Amino acid sequence: MELLATGNLLAVPTVYAVLAIVAHVANYNLTAQLEYATRIFTKILGSNAIYVYAVYLILSALARDYVIELAMDNDLYSLVLIPQTVANVAGYSLFVAGILINLWTLKALGIKNMYNGDSFGYLMDSIVTDGPYKFFNDPQYVGTSIACLGYAVLKQSLVGYALAAVMWAVFQFSVKFVEGPHLTKIYAEHAKKQAKAAAGKTQ
């Protein structure tokens, strides 16, 4: 089998896909912090705000995925490593596995906490350790990255592999420097309020 590698990592569709990945992560981080600071979505949409917001984030993710797909299609078969029949099986298997991990995460967290519910005031009583959290710290990001990798395998696209790596890197950056500190702040402030309330009752 001849190895074919002709991918263009600087093609316009690839650049757009990278921007889409970054924009989606920035989107859910900024909107979550905005809601926590101002309650703007809850003020506008009322008690259903979290559900509308969840749909909004799903649509944002679908838009990202569409741009990624266009980039891979523009780079189709640029890195042929295995026969296409094998690539089809491996690619679809990875894609389905990624989706199932995300659905498993949704089952463990529920809709509210899957989609930044903490920023809307839906705080969890304890850290989730069940389901996919037995194996991964951030299973939703693992699942999404695996699904993207599966599509790259299916398309046998050098750009696809690069985008899967970029997606994983952006998720990890977000968790460490943006999302993680934001959640720590939310629960620290909640703990202070609870301690203050408890102290008030004892007086």
Structure commentary:
There is one protein chain. By secondary structure, this protein is mainly α. Helix content is 74%, strand content 2%. It has six helices and two strands, in the order E-H-H-H-E-H-H-H. The chain has helices spanning 12-38, 40-45, 49-73, 84-114, 139-155, 158-202; strands at residues 4-5, 79-80. It has a two-stranded antiparallel sheet. Helix 1 (12-38) runs parallel beside helix 6, helix 3 runs antiparallel to helix 6 (158-202) and helix 5 runs antiparallel to helix 6 (158-202). The longest helix has 45 residues, at 158-202. The model has no long low-confidence stretch (mean pLDDT 94).
Furnish the topology, listing elements before pairings.
Blueprint lengths: L3 E2 L6 H27 L1 H6 L3 H25 L5 E2 L3 H31 L24 H17 L2 H45 L1
Antiparallel strand pairs: 1-2
Radius of gyration over C-alpha positions, nearest whole angstrom: 20 Å
Indicate the proportion of strand residues.
under 5%
Spatial strand sequence of the major β-sheet:
1-2
- Number of strand elements: 2
How would you state the average pLDDT, rounded? 94
Outline type:
elongated
Percent of residues in helices comes to over 70%
Supply the helix-strand structural class: mainly alpha
Largest sheet: 2 strands, antiparallel
Taken in chain order, the helices and strands follow as: EHHHEHHH
Distance between the termini: 79 Å
Model regions low in confidence, pLDDT < 50 over at least 5 residues: none
What is the number of helices? 6
Short description:
This protein has 6 helices and 2 strands; from the N terminus they run βαααβααα.
